[in-house]
Each structure stands twice: as C-alpha cells, then as structure tokens.
Amino acid sequence: MKDKVTIHTLKRLKQSGQKICMVTAYDATFARILDEGGADVLLVGDSLGMVIQGQDSTLPVTMDQMVYHSAAVSRGAKRAHVVGDLPFMSYQVSPHEAVRNAGRLVAEGNVGSVKLEGGAEFADTVRAIVRASIPVMGHLGLTPQSVHKMGGYVVQGRDEDAARRMLDDALALEEAGAYALVLEGVPLELARTITQSLKIPTIGIGAGKHCDGQVLVCYDLLGMNPDFKPKFVKRFANLHGNITEAAGTYFSEVRAGTFPDEDHSFKANKNVRLVAATPVGPGVVDAPAEGAEKVGAIYGAPV
Ligand code: KIV
C-alpha cells in the first residue's frame, strides 16, 4: 500500500504543482473503490443529506449521521486522507461546541480532518479547532449551509466587492490555521487569484482549472442521476444506465425462473433424503451440520 495521504502531503502537492484529487464518499464500499481509483482525499460531505437521504438541502443533516458515515468511509479508505464535514449548527453557535463536534468526527468517525463553511467570521472557530490538534479545511464561495442567506445555490464573488471580500476571507482562514480551502461556485479568475495568494491548497468545485485540486460529488461524476447536470459537473460514467440495465436483467431472470441456476445454489450433502421439516423446540438452536458448506463473506464485504 502507498503511504497514507496527510495534510502535509497535500501541502507538498501544491508546492510541486501536482493537482489534488478529492471526491466525496459516504460509505465503506465507495470509499474502498474511490481509494483504489487514486483519490488523495475522500470528503464525507454533508451533501449526503441530498444524495443519500433525498433531502432538498444539507441543512437537516445531524452530527450523529456525519459520525456514522465518517466511520464507514474511514473503514474503507486505505491511502486517502478522510475529511468529515461539520454539519449545519454543529459549529456556528460557539467555538466551544465546534471543538467538541470536530472531536467527535475524529474520535468516533476516525477522520483525519474536518471541514466547515464560512469566512473571517469563523476564524476564531478554526483557531480553536486547530488548537485542539484537529486540522481544518475551510469552504468559501457557494456555501450550501447558507442557502437561505444566498437566496439559492448561486455563483458567488462575481462583482469586485464580493471578490475582494472572498479573498480577505481566504487570507483570514489561512491565517487562522486552515490547511486547505474548498472554493465552490466561484468565477475561475477569482479562484486563480485566491489560489495564487495562499500558501495552503485550494480545491475547486465549479471554480475552474486554476485551483490546486478538484472535488466532485461521487454520484455526480459517476452519472447516477440523469436529471441533475449543472454546468460544473462532468459525468465520467453512466452508472444510472449501467445499474438500471443490470437490475433489469436480474429482475427478468427472476421472473423467468432462470436465476438462480445450479451454479448459484447450494446442494445438500450426499445421501440426504428430505422429509417434511421437524419443528425445532423453543430454545433449541440448530448446530451447523457435519461438513457444513461455508458461504464465506456475504453481502460483498471485503475479504
Ligand atoms: O458536502 C459536500 O459534498 C461538499 C463538497 C461539494 C465540497 O461540501
């Protein structure tokens, strides 16, 4: 296995001009596949509220849910650095609560760092979390937890004032100790200026090619939802098509009685003559039969 990616690896990647590859993951199986595919960073994004839970925003996502998904992703990731998103209202109330919740993501979710949305107004919060030895990734631009304040999911920093404020926010987060910054829904010229102004890496989503790395929601890049195609998303596969086709074939074979065939069925031991089932008395547990055939791992778990 290649060395585990750390926040220091990411800094070196920026210094050497190599792009950082980040993608979201929400469970152990996807984490394993994306890790094997070469991800440097797996983000357990609160986007799970939308793509996993079917909510229309990230706002209902809770700390317990983030801990649960973070732990699953961390089990699947071997090389990639795992970042856990701090959900809405887990860090906005006070730096004290933010440190406690960031600590939960690290201790219970086993992540290597946490991410939070917001600019200079959260510099003290970032500082407090970093002081607790928990690395923090910032997130500027289109920050989905502020959907009501933004009046929708709209590109940010288009005019000069807004662009200046975002640059100042980026510098404030770096100064507060953030080790990297997500730039979401930002004009590419502004993302380039911010990237060139910071020593820490920027990771863009809908922020153009000048960022030090890129992130996409894994379901988007894999083409899981044919109805969702914003400008910044490129589909690198058509899993919606592959899955509906595979599932359709499975259902057809079940209906036709051609699945399961002999190759996918177990056989009784030789000389067994089956009679009507004898009821097993209360509290009696059937022991495995002599020479029982082991199924091995089930449900596609890694072995
Ligand atoms: O929640 C998320 O998935 C994110 C990324 C899109 C950056 O914050």
Task: Give the SSE map.
Blueprint: H1 7-15, E1 20-24, H2 28-36, E2 41-44, H3 48-51, H4 63-76, E3 81-85, H5 95-107, E4 113-115, H6 123-131, E5 136-141, H7 147-150, H8 160-176, E6 180-184, H9 188-197, E7 202-205, E8 213-216, H10 218-221, H11 239-256
Parallel strand pairs: 1-2, 1-8, 2-3, 3-4, 4-5, 5-6, 6-7, 7-8
The site of 3-methyl-2-oxobutanoic acid has 11 residues, from strand 6.
Mean pLDDT: 94
| Main sheet record | 8 strands, parallel, barrel
Instruction: Work out the number of β strands.
Output: 8
Q: So how many helices?
A: 11
* Cofactors and ligands: 3-methyl-2-oxobutanoic acid
The oligomeric status of these chains comes to single chain
Helix/strand-derived category reads alpha/beta
Helix content: 25-40%
Percentage of β-strand residues? 5-15%
Describe the structure using short key phrases.
3-methyl-2-oxobutanoate hydroxymethyltransferase; eight-stranded parallel β-barrel; binds 3-methyl-2-oxobutanoic acid; 303 residues; alpha/beta
Task: Put the structure in a nutshell.
This protein has 303 residues and is an alpha/beta fold. The chain has eleven helices and eight strands. An eight-stranded parallel β-barrel has the order 1-2-3-4-5-6-7-8, surrounded by seven helices.
